[in-house]
Amino acid sequence: MSSATMTVPGFALVGCPNCGKTALFNALTGHHQKVANYPGVTVERKEGAMTTPGGTTVRLLDLPGTYSLRGRSPDEAVTRDVVLGRLDGEPLPDAVICVADATNLRLVLRLIMELKALNRPLILALNMVDIAKRQGCEIDVDRLAQELGIPVIPTVAVRRGGVASLFSAIDSLAARTAEGPTGPIRWREPNSTEIRAAHKEAERILKACAFRPGDQKLTGRLDRVLLHPVFGLLILLAVLFLMFQAVFAWATPVMDGIKAAFDLLSGQIQTMMPDGLLRSLLTDGVLAGVGSVVQFLPQILIMFLFIILLEDFGYMARAAFLMDRLMGGAGLHGRAFIPLLSSFACAIPGIMSARVIENRRDRLATILVAPLMTCSARIPVYTLIISAFVPRTEVAGVLSLQGLVLFGLYAAGILSALAVAWVMKRLVWREVAEPFLMEMPAYKVPSFKNVALGLWQRASVFLQRAGTIILAIMVLIWFLSSFPGAPDGATDAAINYSIAGIVGHWIQPILAPIGFNWQIAVALIPGMAAREVAVGALGTVYALSATGDEVGAALQPILAAQWSLPTALALLAWYIFAPQCASTLAVVKRETNSWRWPAILFLYMITLAYLAAFVTFQLAQWVMA
Amino acid sequence: MSLSSIVSKTIVGGSSAPDMRLGQCPKGWRGTVCGLTPVAGLSIPWLEMERRLLEMGFVEGARLEILHDGPIMRDPIAVRVDDITIAVRRADANTILVRPLE
Q1: In chain A, which residues have their Cβ closer than 8 Å to the Cβ of B84?
Q2: Sheet order of strands, B30-36 included
Q3: How far off is chain A from B2, nearest CA to CA, in Å?
Q4: What is the CATH number of domain B3-100?
Q5: B43, A440: Cβ pair inside 8 Å?
Q6: Is A191 on the interface with B (CB under 8 A)?
Q7: Farthest CA pair distance, chain B
Q8: Distance between CA A574 and CA B42 in Å, rounded?
């Protein structure tokens, strides 16, 4: 019956942040969820289909958490626009299910008053009643329903069967929506007098329902340690260190395994297929491309495991509290700390985790500076050049000069990230830091199901969306580096005759002022795939037959003999800022839903890279002359 | 209009005790909200700031307790507002006029 699918009613889930709305959404829809972005905005859209035991099928839309319909952030504006039917391509919801944390009712009552002005069928799912009972929190549910004039259904989203009563409420809600709308939308933005009045009314309702807030002793006790000016910071550092360590160390064996599997597959193809274009496309283009994407997956999963656990536990708000003053100096929000730190491993999970920042410009600034943090892909390039050019001497008897240079490169990355953020926020957008006004939720034990679902969603979104773009770019770069092929009797490496080689020779005069020779210029083009690929590409250009890690060792004496020290230093300076990572650009495109931000990212980074290399090269030449 | 005249206008109730600003109170301090008033250097327009504070529960009469303060310059602060905990920067909390618990 096709008309039935056309008329599946759409219900919207609305609630304050931290009310367990997503857990309820997960409990109702299971894994039947579609995660995408709203067109034109960096806000995640989550929709799921569900059928109640009573046979009602509805589409559920999980809207971003909000304290009011005024739409203070882009996320909250989506919630407002959807429930008002103002968002293009998004039908007006047939009914609204408001979700509330039973232990924390005060602020949601005001939201319910705003939602009632929508004149849509409305019910209140009183979530986490199990925790409320345990904390000695009390509320007269029948009286609450009577005072609010809407059905109130107690639920426990994280327990099996905890939403049974909500199913029958959804059945009757669907029956009501079939009767048509109850009246015109009367909502308008409340002014401060109306908000004050609504609070008075909420206070009266809470009193009438004999509301007793839950006991917060455990949260208070934990906070005394976790927010302690000294121990709190030490614990935060320990958590971050563990996270950093996990992403770096735990992911490596899996990543090596994935890489080995792809190498094996590539080797199989090489032995089974005759040498030719198709073989090259499959091994150097498709497999190398897919492999480089899938390789990131372990890091991303570990990163998000930590982030989801910390978020669900309630620690993320505490980390932001501890770091706010430090990040605020650069014009960033306290929450920007986690994405920036994880970018030391790889900018991709870092950029994806910038979702924890609510304010759009704070999020954009964080995304734009995340690639300046020294990621692990720069390490092969840094070690190659440092070991070829920096003498193995010691400074002050204990510190290795090579180590100091590496540390200096990391420090330059951090400082430039903070500086760029400051310029973006204070000079370009002329913004003073957004007010930091954040509820500190009570600590909760994360539920296994929600964590697993969250991880699964991150993984599939990453593989589907970023994977397609990255793969396309990899194939393009393979094409540029392979066509046209070397002529008969060619003496140089084949890449010199390809489009990449031609472009490399063509741009070499532009790179001459920063001390790059044509070999570097040519290597920069396949190096676009990922920064560490530049090492392999240099090997190709210098016509080395070695592969993998051997390239670095074989290349080192050649570079030491052929490059001048200013050239080497200029290349190091270039790589602090170098935008050469197609995957990062693809993820920025995915996260911001537009090509504008990856374009800005690429342009500003390449400009800084050029300037830094220019200054380094000229200065080094002048000093050495 | 001078700041003090704005302050005196927004104060509700007629207690003789001088009002304090929440941003200047130490950790452990307890009291109630007695008014909201603009200060210089806010990052967003006052009418918006006022509504945000109200929405987070900083309404006249709300019971307050400063539970924690941040590691740098004792900023921001975590404030118990009735039965929820809100983090706010001291600069923004200076818009909240308060009276200590008797």
Answers
A1: 104, 106-107, 439
A2: A437-439, B84-88, B75-81, B63-72, B30-36, B96-100, B20-21
A3: 22
A4: 2.30.30.90
A5: no
A6: yes
A7: 37
A8: 39
Q: Are B27 and B68 in contact (CB under 8 A)?
A: yes
- CB-based contact, A229 to chain B, within 8 Å: yes
Mean pLDDT of A58-76: 87
A residues 35..74 contacting B (CB < 8 A): 67-68, 70, 72
For tokens 């001459």, name the residue: A512
Whether B68 and A432 lie within 8 Å, measured CB to CB: no
> Is the pLDDT score of A292 beyond 80?
no
Residues of A in contact with B44 (CB under 8 A): 434-435
| Contact residues, chain B, for A195 at CB < 8 Å | 51, 54-55, 59
**Contact call for B59 and A436, based on CB within 8 A:** no
Indicate the range of A344-348, A409-413, A590-594, B45-49 predicted with least confidence: A344-348
Q: Which residues of B touch A213 (CB under 8 A)?
A: 83
Domain-wise residue ranges, chain A:
2-214
The structural architecture, per CATH, of the domain A2-214 is: 3-Layer(aba) Sandwich (3.40)
The token pair that represents B27 in the structure block: 């950790």
Q: Where are chain B's structural domains? A: 3-100
> A322 and B56 in contact by Cβ < 8 A?
no
A230 touches chain B (CB under 8 A): yes
Residues A127, A131, A132: CA angle, nearest 5 degrees:
75
To test the contact with chain A by mutation, choose from B46, B50, B55 the residue with the greatest count of A C-beta atoms within 10 A, namely B55
% of chain A beyond a pLDDT of 70:
90
Of A325, A465, A51, nearest to B71 (Cα)?
Answer: A325
Residue of A123, A131, A130 whose CA lies nearest to A167 = A123
* Each residue's pLDDT tens digit, A263-279: 888 888 888 888 777 88
Q: Report which of A425, A308, A272 is spatially closest to residue A359, judged by C-alpha positions.
A: A425
For A102-116, A254-268, A348-362, which range has the lowest pLDDT when averaged over its residues? A348-362
Interface probe with A: pick from B59, B73, B96, most Cβ of A within 10 Å: B59
With a CB cutoff of 8 Å and minimum separation 6, the contacts of A124 are: A97, A98, A99, A100, A112, A144, A145, A148, A150, A151, A152, A153
Cβ neighbours, 10 Å, residue A596: 11
**Does pTM top 0.90 for this prediction?**
no
Q: What are phi and psi of A130, to 5 degrees?
A: -65, -45
Q: Please tell me the predicted confidence (pLDDT) of residue B12.
A: 46
pLDDT digits (tens, 9 = 90+) for A116-131: 999 889 999 999 998 8
Report whether pLDDT(A7) > 70.
yes
Mean pLDDT of chain B: 84
Is residue A286's pLDDT more than 80?
Answer: no
- Indicate if the pLDDT at residue B6 is higher than 70: no
Mean pLDDT computed over A298-302: 80
Under 8 Å CB pairs connecting chains A and B tally to 111
Beta-bridged to residue A62, according to DSSP, are A13, A46
The pLDDT value given to residue A43: 67
Q: Given pLDDT bands bounded at 50, 70 and 90, which one contains residue A3?
A: very low
Banded model confidence at residue A327, pLDDT cuts 50, 70, 90? confident
Cα dihedral A314/A315/A317/A318 (nearest 10): 130
What angle in degrees, to the nearest 10, is found between the helix axes of A533-541 and A378-389?
Answer: 50
Predicted local confidence at residue B14, as pLDDT? 45
